[in-house]
Amino acid sequence: MKFLRVGLSTTTIEPVLTGGRLDGIGVYTTALMKGLPEVGCSVTGWSFPPPFKTVRAGMFSAGEKMPRSFEAWSLRDLVLPTGRGRLPMDLFHATDYRIVRMQCPVVATLHDAIPLKHPEWTSPRLRGLKNWLQKTAAGKADHVIAISKFAVAELVEYFHIDERNITVVHAGVGSEWYVPPPPEDVDETLRANGLQSGYFLFVGTLQPRKNVERIIDAYKSLPAAVRRARQLVIVGHAGWRCDDLINKIRTMVQNGEQVIWLSNLAQKNQLRHVYKGAGVFVFPSLHEGFGIPVVEAFASGVPVVTSNTTSLPEVSQGAALEVDPLAVDDIAAAMLALATDDALRQRCIDAGRRRAAQLTWNQAVEKTAAVYRKVLGR
């Protein structure tokens, strides 16, 4: 089998650009970077440098430096619509919304249309320009990958992409998530962070659509005995429009509530330890293109509360307790049920593990490589 020369956008995983923090797109990009060489692809990472800043030689470690910033390249595409960027590859895969014209075919993964559908949830800084750039960039892809069937309708509506030019490839989790970490390592991570096994857990960036404030309100409404026995652990760095949420968390801590916010875990494998120590995973997000943390919890053997909206029922397939994310009482009732009903807990754990086995990065990588070959006619 002849190897395909694939250029992969690595801007979302470049440490000097991200500070070492990976969001969902970063996790997705990392999985492709790791897995594609196993399915006949020779992969080179390419990262867009920040505009108006000098990038010194050796600063980029995840990928090579693009010839110009995304903003400058987008302006070039606007002024020279017939121009094409030249890089030594058979195909370029943009894993985020930074899509530019290339001499080779371009595949783009568009995870959702949240910035256009719900601008109120996004950072207000240069929002209009960013949304215009995203919408314009989407039209430059030769083929689009969506990470859920749910996302397809949004991509068609907001990015005006022909549905026939979209392939659904579900995201997943790596093989390491299916192997329980050593108990002594889990215990060490929990002790280091002041955690007591059995807590309610949320994982994700602190931003409006993640619905963390309602998780806190649901936790506050639980019986006092349950709150004394089970902490609420929030894992994720501060995103945008989260000042009120952070103040709410700090106020609860000052009032003696068992709420712990871990804004940054010291080591990558500690996240698996934190999942393993959880009693219930709570993820009633208002909107997800996929929702990787749900599958991480499934694979870790943790019962899940999630939303009955957007892509999350497609991901869960009945393995989680699905609730109205706007109803605090419903979120609280599901949290209480999974904390107190052992038979229900076990059913959800077993169903979650079965569902996680269907959503692996190995499968996603193989299907992604098949998209490349289809686009290239190989």
From TrEMBL:
<dbReference type="Pfam" id="PF00534">
    <property type="entry name" value="Glycos_transf_1"/>
</dbReference>
<keyword id="KW-0808">Transferase</keyword>
<dbReference type="InterPro" id="IPR028098">
    <property type="entry name" value="Glyco_trans_4-like_N"/>
</dbReference>
<feature type="domain" description="Glycosyltransferase subfamily 4-like N-terminal">
    <location>
        <begin position="23"/>
        <end position="173"/>
    </location>
</feature>
<feature type="domain" description="Glycosyl transferase family 1">
    <location>
        <begin position="198"/>
        <end position="355"/>
    </location>
</feature>
<dbReference type="InterPro" id="IPR001296">
    <property type="entry name" value="Glyco_trans_1"/>
</dbReference>
<dbReference type="Pfam" id="PF13439">
    <property type="entry name" value="Glyco_transf_4"/>
</dbReference>
<protein>
    <submittedName>
        <fullName>Glycosyltransferase family 1 protein</fullName>
    </submittedName>
</protein>
